[in-house]
Amino acid sequence: MAAISRDDVAHLAKLARIEMTPAELDHMASELEQILGAVKRVQEVATSDIAPTSHPLSMSNVFRDDVVKPSLTNEEALSGAPAKADERFKVPQILGEE
Amino acid sequence: MTNIHSTAAEMASALAAKEISSVELTKQHLDRIAAVDGKINAFLHIDKAGALEQAEVIDKKRASGEKLSPLAGVPIAVKDILAQKGIPTTAGSKILEGWRPPYDSTVVAKLKAASVVILGKTNMDEFAMGSSTENSAYGTTQNPWDLARTPGGSSGGSAAAVAAFEAPLAIGTDTGGSIRQPAALTGIVGVKPTYGAVSRYGVVAYSSSLDQVGPFARTVLDTALLHEAIAGHDERDSTSINAPVPQVVAAAKRLDVKGMKIGVIKELSGSGFQAGISARIAESIELLVAAGAEIVEVTCPNFEYALAAYYLIAPSEASSNLARFDSMRYGLRVGDDGSRGAEEVMSATREAGFGKEVKRRIILGTYALSSGYYDAYYGSAQKVRTLVKQDFDNAFAKADVLISPVTPTTAFKIGEKSNDPVAMYLSDIATIPVNMAGIGGMSLPVGLADEDGLPVGLQIMAPVMQDDRFYRVGGTLEAALLSKWGQPILSKAPDLTVQK
Amino acid sequence: MTLDYKAATEKYEPTLGLEVHVELNTNSKMFCSCATEFGASPNTQTCPVCLGLPGALPVVNGKAIESTILIGLALNCSIAPYSRFARKNYFYPDMPKNFQTSQYDEPICVDGFLDVEIETDEGPKVFRVDIERVHMEEDTGKSLHVGGSTGRIHGAEYSLLDYNRAGIPLVEIVTRIIPGTGKYAPQVARAYVTQLRDILRSLGVSDVKMEQGSLRCDANVSLAPIGSGLLGTRSETKNVNSLRSVERALTGEIERQANRLEAGERIIQETRHFLEESGLTRPGRSKEQAEDYRYFPEPDLVPVTPDAKWIEELRAKLPENPADRRKRLQREWNVPDSEMNSLINAELVDVVEETVKLGAEPTRARTWWLGEISRLANEKEVAPTSLISTAFVAEIIALISSGDLTDKLARQVVEGVVNGEGSPKEVIEKRGLKVVSDDSALMVAIEAAIAAQPDTAERVRGGNIPAAGALIGAVMKATGGQADASKVRELLLKHLGQG
Q: CB neighbours (10 Å) of residue C387?
């Protein structure tokens, strides 16, 4: 396994939206490498003939009826908002567009 | 005379017999919290007014002859990871400081419906990531047995509150051992029910496929009473099991294990476990044999990979679950000075709002899920999960329940492992396989380790939705231990009102 | 020298790919019980689940699954016996959890197709569009940008978020690449989206209103020199919100790409936005690096495993394919193409069919709906179907066929019904609109007309039948238009020995 570089961590931190200082990146890189060194053991036994388990119980088809139930009020919905305006969540400018 | 040292069952009967009111009982506990929580730091939020108001309503209902549930009027402490309407819910994180949910988690709603008095919210490792409460953004909880030691975690606040007689009952969550390990380290009973037995709705998610809510109490029966109050199908949790709750209270009262086969897991015994722990476990096995159980040795060869798999699966799911903490809709917002865009404010907030361990796991999980690494890490971890399940299936083919120690060591010193993540992760080596397989497990206090006089926990595990089995075994062993010692082990804990 | 569209497609072969997002018309959202009504006031259709509050958990709307399976079946897909939801992880403020619950490598419907017919230089031609997958996901909230260049205070820019739309069920229908359309690529795309829209509407699973965003199309296109057998780099055009725009956007994009290639420039794989006013596309924000969505199975949801019985029950519910149905009705009604298209464009096929089912003669049913009723509807700026029921139209047509009403009278009846004067019977009664069919009363008028124009009557007697027109006109005038002209003609000619 390749060593984890500061750039690797910087990329991960960007994907995870966590601002990190260069010192933090370095520290995280060495910790991540240490942890990955320990956890990569899973590869020793994870052969291709084993089916992955993503969920402890085998359940399926859990559905809800298409019935409307009361929503939160606008006030309740916005109750935790760091900022609000015009019945909406007020947030810093969203750059770019979709 | 009913007091804070009584069991929840005793409190419930005294309340039912009107020997004490819920208001009196609640006041006794609030007084105890006021007296000792400065030392323990079990609570993040004490809802004095709310608890007394609730107690008064319950007393009135009782006075009017209304039929109440078995635990009506008994106080409880709730881990700060469960949403409670209007009450601060932080999950031990700065990023949620001041957040008051506009809704109740299903478990809190059930507690309210069962007329249990909620005293407040307990301390925990941030987002349940940790084994000591040292990762809480609001200070570490101290172990009532030794204030220099941790109570374990992540549900350390709940465990310490019960061990310190601040509450007879508490709610915790267990993702890799977060109920069983602190129960073991504080000398109380803690149960991680079968995955899906208790609703996760309203529980701030750490690792969705592993998280499970469960009860803490000082006796097996009390634990069972709380288990029954919170378990059951919930249509708001798609992974909730739609089947009747096992009869855990009846099982706890059964006090008989004749003919039961108890499997001792070879890989979770012997070297790697503190001598005093192994000695207490051996003693428990003797008591079970004396009570008519048959002991068989089982082998679970893949358990040694479970820890590694856990530290891939849980951080991966966490990296996604914790993405919502971005300062847009609730919680902390940092750096919104009008010059920065939403993306920058998100990153600044997450940097400031998450603690070190949380960031570490988010980064680890982001890595394990990223393209090119998914199969090698997350995918492989899921295969290990299959193997761990197979190990359990094979073991349960030979035994009705399985046993092991809960932890490799008794309570460790605060600060001892906090700079060594991998060493800290090892605290969960015996508890993690249970979460991986989705089965239930109990931590039962089985005495004190000779070398340090600290509590030892025995883990009892049963197959999916057979949670009654570990209550049966736990109840029987608890009774045998009590008659051996003459008093509950918590009576050996130091007096907090004089301890410095 | 720039290439126009014709020159561009003479040199380059376009390859299409279309992704259509459809908002389902379920009562409640995909994973929670909030209402889905369009236009509700901001953040009043939200709950812990669709706001992504800590601790909230999703539960799948069974109706949404059913609708998606229906769509898959209508598009000739296989329904997967096992499918799962996955989390698509990326941060965006209008997405409350910062992941979208979607489907990734285990979609619910796969491998379908839709045949679309377009008019080519050589006549009608059918193109088969292969459908790769139909999967479920959830919509995002809506953001509103405030301030900026139009704002009054410098630096006061911010965005406002409304999560009413967050969590509304979306179905994404993805085609495989569509090769071989040549210069018809834009028409094929338009025909595909049109036909898809009609199918979705016939299934009753969506409002399919492109202008409200309940049906959205992303159009991918790439160019390669004709005959090269190569596949070029594609662009993806978003914000295409009408059928006409699908065609315009692709035409524009093909021209743009061709001209870049002509100039020796590379095509950048990017997302472009369609500009309705100019018909051109502009580039979206270029991403510094390819997004890594870190998909993994959604642990809060369990797999969807529809059994064969359920699928067959749903298959039995499938309505006739709209294109087939139209062909059948056109045949049954014996309608020329142009008329049929008018009916389709006016969205009147259903009502005409219903009116015919109630016994009306097809040609009359078509003419009345497309003519008088549509005219009135235009005046009032409402839908024709909101003016009058099919039952009333059928009743009026029956009265015309039996000779009890003339067309002229019938128009007055329609007007009366539309004005709320009651049922056709009541209007006829109130307005006294009965055709004068009493022979003796008519005979009085006929004799009066003959007496007034003896020369004309003589000519008719002499065999000059067309001359009768003047006499008939006089009778009609005398009866205030309430007589049935054909009846008058019959009686008159008989009276003059020509019957």
A: 18
Contact C392, C365 (CB under 8 A): no
The least confident of B109-113, C109-113, C201-205, C338-342 is C338-342
User: Which residues of chain A are at the C interface, by a Cβ-Cβ cutoff of 8 Å?
Assistant: 15, 17, 54-55, 59-69, 71-74, 77-78, 80, 85-98
- Cα separation, B8 vs A85, whole angstroms: 48
Q: What is the CATH number of the domain that holds B487?
A: 3.90.1300.10
Q: Enter the tokens of residue B241.
A: 């099991």
Chain A contact for B323 (CB, 8 A cutoff): yes
Query: Cβ separation of A18 and B359 shorter than 8 Å?
Result: yes
Amino acid at C383: A
Provide the token pair at B45: 């939020």
Using CB atoms, which residue from C57, C60, C96 is nearest to B201?
C57
Q: Give per-residue pLDDT as tens, C67-105.
A: 999 999 999 999 999 999 999 999 999 999 999 999 999
Number of domains present in the structure of chain B = 1
Secondary structure of residue B303 in the 3-state scheme: helix
The two tokens of residue B359 are 């960031």
Tokens of C438: 């009493």
Alpha helices in C373-453 (DSSP H): 374-380, 390-401, 407-418, 424-431, 439-452
The two three-digit tokens of residue C304, written as one number: 């969807």
Q: What is the ipTM of this complex?
A: 0.96
Other beta carbons less than 10 A from residue C324's beta carbon: 9
DSSP secondary structure code for residue C370 in this structure: I
Cβ pair C175, C76 in contact under 8 A = no
Residues in chain A, overall count = 98
In a domain, B409, yes or no: yes
C97: helix, coil or strand? coil
Domain hosting A17: range is 6-45
Assigned token pair, B37: 């929580």
Side-chain-side CA neighbours of residue B470 (13 Å): 30
All residues of chain A having their beta carbon less than 8 Å from the beta carbon of residue B371 are none
> Which token pair is C12?
């380059």
Q: What is the CATH number of the domain that holds A25?
A: 1.10.20
- Strands in A84-85's sheet, in edge-to-edge order, are A84-85, A88-92, C158-162, C142-146
List, for residues B93-115, the tens digit of each pLDDT value: 999 999 999 999 999 999 999 99
What domains lie within chain C, and their CATH numbers? 5-310 (no CATH), 320-431 (no CATH), 439-495 (1.10.10)
Residues in chain B: 500
CA distance C100 to C107: 15
How do residues B444-485 score in pLDDT, each as one tens digit? 999 999 999 999 999 999 999 999 999 999 999 999 999 999
Question: In the 8-state DSSP scheme, what is residue C267?
Answer: P
